[in-house]
Amino acid sequence: MRAADEALIVIDVQNDFCPGGALAVADGDAIVEGINRLWEEFPAVVLTQDWHPAGHSSFASSHGAEPFSTTRMPYGEQTLWPDHCVQGTPGAAFHPRLRTDADLILRKGFRREVDSYSAFFENDRRTPTGLAGYLRERGLGRLTLVGLATDYCVSFSALDAARLGFAVTVQERLTRPIDLDGSLAAARAAWAEAGVRVA
Ligand code: VGL
Ligand code: ZN
Asked: Which of 59, 62, 63, 161 has its CA 20 to 30 A from that of 40?
């Protein structure tokens, strides 16, 4: 069993990020059993769920653009994705074999005009999701991150958590990357810079 201040944060293990899904990550489903096993060790577990309204501004279809192209948003550069994790659709549901009896399920990306890769802040880097306050009030200062995708939502969450003063470990074997234009290498370099541990 882990210490009482340790939490497992499971990022976006949802059907649309698994093989057959709208934004499938290669082998995304291969981490499910390992996450369920690791779960047993932790006194606290949080799941995050990417949860977009139809017509979300991160969808290429909302801009008449090609998926995986980029656009300028008021808050900066934004990659445009295939429509994915639309609220209430099967693609937005957790992988059917993932445990879901978490203490907290945090939904993110629900504002049409701004994306939210990180579990802590929207992509404007300023609007908090409330997760930091939740963890702090519960005395959970040490976080282990797993889930999808390594180089987007896991990485942005890890970097924000470190910036907020949490001790952060990414259990990389229980993540899978999208790896767009060197994004995985960039993520790993940023973790080293920010003091995010990789297990
Ligand atoms: C994610 C792209 C768009 C992720 C979510 O969970 O990593 N990536 N929305
Ligand atoms: Zn998304």
From this structure: 161
